[in-house]
Amino acid sequence: MSETRNGHGPAIEVDRVSASYSVRPSRRAGLWGLRALATGQHREVREVPALRDVSFNVPKGSVLGVIGRNGAGKSTLLRTVSGILAPKEGRIVVRGRISPLLSVGLGMHPDLSGRENVRLGCLAFGHSPDELEDLTKSIIDFAQLGEYVEFPFRSYSSGMKARLGFSVAAHLDPEILLIDEAITGGDAKFKEKTGEKMFELCGDGRTIVIVTHGLSLVRMMATSALWLHQGRVAEYGDPDDVVNAYMRYCRVDASFDDGD
Amino acid sequence: MNVRPRQTEREYSDVVSVFEPHTFALPRLRDYVSDVVARRTFITELANAEIRGAQSSTFLGELWSLADPVFQAAIYYFLFVVIRGATRGTNSTEYIILIIGCVFFFNFTRISIQDGGRSILRHKGLVLNSMFPRALLTVCEVYKGLLATWPALALYAVLFLVLRGPISQGLLFIPLLMVFQACMNLGLALMFSTLTVLYTDMTNLLNYILRILTFSTPVIYPVASLQPSIRLLLLWNPLFPLFCGYQAIITGSSPTGGQIFGCLVWSIVLLVVGAWMFLRRERSFALHV
Questions:
Q1: Which positions 45-74 of B are in contact with A (Cβ < 8 Å)?
Q2: Fewer CB in 10 Å around end: N or C, chain A?
Q3: How far apart are CA B187 and CA B182, in angstroms?
Q4: pLDDT tens per residue, range A127-144
């Protein structure tokens, strides 16, 4: 990764990016394992292509909704854009401060309390200890976890984890916010609150990339949408057009499955 | 229906990040180090929070940081004073002062390698979902090792006085030796944390490497008891000059110039090699964890 200064152009430029990750296939134990050792199969590492030749731009201040079936490469795309995962081919240029938290709750430490996780998230993003008290208070107030904020993160329900995770990501003040499945958790009241916060962030001129299965959310908030299918861009453009195309595909696919 | 609110103009910072296919090129060292230093509070907060978290479910809680060295000292007292002293009839007090001191100092290295070597794998969630210099996680484990060593050393100081250990000017060298030890520990932790990510077998091997390191370092035996040929062989152990220095201090003298020079050279070599291995592969960690 290289970092320079001069921020003219779109917030995110993804140019012919391919990415993959390595997986070691599970092997049989016992004598079969010894056979694998003898034949050299134990060294086998399979490379799973997750993104293939993906290109798109996200202008500053816009919202990109990323949709697609499970395993389409959506989370890998976010990891590649945030610099966590290096692309195998292609180039990504990001102009602005990017949020460090992707999958809500996954980066949190299970043994630490909600409050401790919030403090660590802020510090990892680069906030100074002076800002920490006020920032932690706003995040905790927004998440509305009550006394649970002092309990270990592992004791939280998935909804509580989502609430805290979204609250941290939304309050870190990034210029580019990447969110993976942020608003699928939480109760109806919190979903409403999250929606309001998202509107606030959108209106504030930030760039947002959101990976979601919530198609109505993409229609409502996104300025453009990207449908990923088996690591490739299936559709990219107007949110309504992309969502319609994706829904058509899902219906056809479902009827095909039923017929099977 | 798109109901996005009207955009307000926002000035973006002029930071531009470019992500390209992984190469083994090193990042700009000055920027990397200043990034780590800027996030130093993260290291201390994570270390303290993890220690609290680990102890929160136990009955003794934070008292364990003191109970651990007490139990260790009791075990070594039993081994070297009760059993060895009774069978050999030697002056066991000097021996126990030496052994307990070395064990407590070695704990710093043991924890750093044991936990630091697994630091990236242990924080897989953070590595896959957050972007920050990964070395912070390894530095944090070494810092935790240091935090765990303080109570033991405080207890040792009391024991040293009670058992009338020799007080000499050599004691002034302890902070310097601990700085060398911290550098060596960090170098080794960076090295092993890279290897455990890249080669999963390394996680299992780490226990054996640590055991070999424990027995090839003068921790539970006095340096003076070693034959010259064995001593020559152990010179290749980076921790050898360091623990020769600690033993010299505990027995009432000072570390020699050669020992201090050896510590300095090994500290630099381990830190440079460890950092080089880690920084070259850091960007590929997310692929392997």
A1: 45-46, 49-50, 52-54, 56
A2: C
A3: 9
A4: 888 888 899 999 999 888
